[in-house]
């Protein structure tokens, strides 16, 4: 939901968790895990690609809610695909490059997102992407870069239509397979397909769809080298998506393969990754694209939420936090 900080007039987005929902341990674990991921992002070295990741400004609680306060965004990629499909095609290369840089930045910080999908790719006022929603992310104890060849976790996590096969297999209790960072690159392949395909629909819908694709990839007597859903796509894009959707995680495209892939080259040979950070910052902002927080109401009719005093109960421990930079007297 949209909000405005009374003290600074800054426009924010609030992600709200009703406290009574946290009585279930699983929901509380998701909240605390997401908060830990945001804390990791705030402590990380100043990666330029962090501009393609959603940051948390603060978390606080009222008497009956816990709130995460973040920058207010214009929309998300899923909504853009529904409302502005032609525009999405024109910006597909730029957005795919930004998502790639954002995912790699997460891996450099020791985080596997595990739920990369169009709905978790936000679009800001400059129409750049921000990867968000770290509730089911894996946050490694070591804050350094993840080893691409190492497996870190085994729990099934994420959304089915962008879930890598090695994650999907963990839905059965008897077959827990560990997996690592390549799971995010599979998900990126699913999102890129959705971004550039004619109908902007998910490549996979059910688990059976994914298993059928894995079976097709391993078949020696398939009638075509190109998966049927890829018909009509440019050859370079098919190569990129096929590399990201390689069922064998050790053979799957990763950051190095994607950032050097020919599908990101323009006609003059310039890569979408060249000066991606500075070009993103130089884009014109469109404040009018941000949601109207008034919703037809007068400003003085808006509801004001106050932080719960530290002595007041009921209180959820370990959720009140402010981004360190916000505490600096020089900012």
TrEMBL record:
Top-rank taxon, per record: Eukaryota
Gene3D superfamilies attached here? Phosphorylase Kinase, domain 1, Transferase(Phosphotransferase) domain 1
Q: Which UniProt keywords apply?
A: ATP-binding, Kinase, Nucleotide-binding, Serine/threonine-protein kinase, Transferase
Which InterPro entries does the record associate with it? Kinase-like_dom_sf (IPR011009), Prot_kinase_dom (IPR000719), Ser/Thr_kinase_AS (IPR008271), Ser_Thr_kinase_AGC (IPR050236)
Instruction: Give the EC number(s) listed in the UniProt record.
Output: 2.7.11.1
Q: Does Kinase count among this protein's keywords?
A: yes
Query: Which molecular function terms from Gene Ontology are attached?
Result: ATP binding; protein serine/threonine kinase activity
Q: Top enzyme class of this protein?
A: transferase
Transcription is among the record's keywords:
no
Reactions the enzyme catalyzes: L-seryl-[protein] + ATP = O-phospho-L-seryl-[protein] + ADP + H(+); L-threonyl-[protein] + ATP = O-phospho-L-threonyl-[protein] + ADP + H(+)
Q: Name one GO biological process term.
A: intracellular signal transduction
Against SUPFAM superfamilies, the record matches this protein to: Protein kinase-like (PK-like)
Residues of the Protein kinase domain: 1-264
Q: Name one Pfam family in it.
A: Pkinase
The record's PANTHER family line, in alphabetical order, gives: SERINE/THREONINE-PROTEIN KINASE, SERINE_THREONINE-PROTEIN KINASE GREATWALL
This chain's protein is named non-specific serine/threonine protein kinase
User: Where does this protein come from, organism-wise?
Assistant: Suillus fuscotomentosus
């Amino acid at each position: 939901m949209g909000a405005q900080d009374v003290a600074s007039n800054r426009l924010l987005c609030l992600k709200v968790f009703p406290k009574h929902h946290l009585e279930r341990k699983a929901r509380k674990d998701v909240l605390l895990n997401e908060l830990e991921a945001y804390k990791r992002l705030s402590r990380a070295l100043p990666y330029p690609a962090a501009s393609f990741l959603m940051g948390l400004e603060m978390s606080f609680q009222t008497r009956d809610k816990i709130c995460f306060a973040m920058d207010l965004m214009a929309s998300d990629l899923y909504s853009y695909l529904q409302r502005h499909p032609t525009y999405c095609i024109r910006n597909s290369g730029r957005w795919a490059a930004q998502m790639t840089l954002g995912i790699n930045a997460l891996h450099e910080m020791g985080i596997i997102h595990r739920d990369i999908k169009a709905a978790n790719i936000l679009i800001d006022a400059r129409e750049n992407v921000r990867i968000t929603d770290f509730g089911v992310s894996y946050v490694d104890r070591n804050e350094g870069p993840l080893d691409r060849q190492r497996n870190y976790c085994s729990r099934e996590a994420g959304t089915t239509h962008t879930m890598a096969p090695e994650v999907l297999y963990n839905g059965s209790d008897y077959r827990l397979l560990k997996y690592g960072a390549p799971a995010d690159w599979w998900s990126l392949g699913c999102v890129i397909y959705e971004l550039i395909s004619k109908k902007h629909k998910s490549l996979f819908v059910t688990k059976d769809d994914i298993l059928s694709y894995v079976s097709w990839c391993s078949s020696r007597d398939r009638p075509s080298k190109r998966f049927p859903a890829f018909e009509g796509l440019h050859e370079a894009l098919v190569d990129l998506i096929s590399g990201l959707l390689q069922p064998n995680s050790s053979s799957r495209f990763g950051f190095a393969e994607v950032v050097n892939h020919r599908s990101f080259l323009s006609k003059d040979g310039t890569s979408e990754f060249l000066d991606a950070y500075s070009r993103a910052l130089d884009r014109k902002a469109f404040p009018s694209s941000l949601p109207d927080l008034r919703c037809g109401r007068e400003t003085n009719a808006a509801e004001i939420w106050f932080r719960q005093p530290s002595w007041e109960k009921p209180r959820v421990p370990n959720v009140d936090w402010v981004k360190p930079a916000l505490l600096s007297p020089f900012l």
